Amino acid sequence: xxxxxxxxxxxxxxxxxxxxxxxxxxxxxxxxxxxxxxxxxxxxxxxxxxxxxxxxxxxxxxxxxxxxxxxxxxxxxxxxxxxxxxxxxxxxxxxxxxxxxxxxxxxxxxxxxxxxxxxxxxxxxxxxxxxxxxxxxxxxxxxxxxxxxxxxxxxxxxxxxxxxxxxxxxxxxxxxxxxxxxxxxxxxxxxxxxxxxxxxxxxxxxxxxxxxxxxxxxxxxxxxxxxxxxxxxxxxxxxxxxxxxxxxxxxxxxxxxxxxxxxxxxxxxxxxxxxxxxxxxxxxxxxxxxxxxxxxxxxxxxxxxxxx
Length: 308
What we know:
- By secondary structure, the protein is α/β, with parallel strands linked by helices.
- The protein is built from eleven helices and eleven strands.
- It has a domain at 3-167 and 205-227 and 279-289: Rossmann fold.
- The longest helix is centred in the first third of the chain and has 23 residues, at 81-103.
- Helix 3 packs parallel to helix 4 (140-154), helix 5 crosses helix 7 and helix 7 (235-246) packs parallel to helix 11 (296-307).
- The two termini are 32 Å apart.
- The protein has a seven-stranded parallel sheet, with helices on both faces. Strands 7-9 form a two-stranded parallel sheet. Strands 8-11 form a two-stranded antiparallel sheet.
- Residues 6-226 form the NAD-dependent epimerase/dehydratase domain.
- InterPro entries: DUF1731 (IPR013549), Epimerase_deHydtase (IPR001509), NAD(P)-bd_dom_sf (IPR036291), SDR39U1 (IPR010099).
- This is TIGR01777 family protein.
- It comes from Pedobacter cryoconitis.
């Protein structure tokens, strides 16, 4: 095996599943830290933690090659005061706990990746936002990212390199945005959302996983890194691409006022759809990360070929 131990904190969700499958052939052990017990699946094992206090799970981090923290309450909800507090706490508390534990270890993980969000940048239709010249935005979702990254980088882990991986929208076949957008297309509702000019920064699920392993080998890299494909796509073009790839000739568009009504009905926020996320992975490109999927049409074709 190439690696000894890979730790996925909060790894029971969609991206955690992608990462666990990616690393199962590469590592002796893949350990998921979760609030709920799950039976072992080969070398993928689950350890229970509450993400608030130390427990037996701490011993598993000793000698790990890589720790990836995926903890965080889903932001796909209405931003009530209660949900806002839960969203922030669900990111800060596990991050601070992991930092406290790692800081005391003799054989600490070599690399700790906190999967944060590319939504930290402002609404951008004028130019791409990279790690050096990008503008941090304002509003609740950006504040979440700022507090989260601050908690991460303020932890004292002298033996562990740290990367805040600002993840774009992950495209894959089983969960996340892709199957939901595809469902709209199937029902003839796959037109643009809002004015359709907002950019969508995305990353194929296999690049999201491969990128973490690549970063393990790039020992000179730390700090904030954008995890997005080099070519963002407008909402209009993305929906057109999905319709064409699936063989649906038309799609009814959804104006902003209709999205607002729909968002209230299903308990989410229109910002998740209407914000323009134009993110450039400058640091990945500068260090020649070999993207598996750099163009949206290739990523969509690949995902649809796996579905059928």
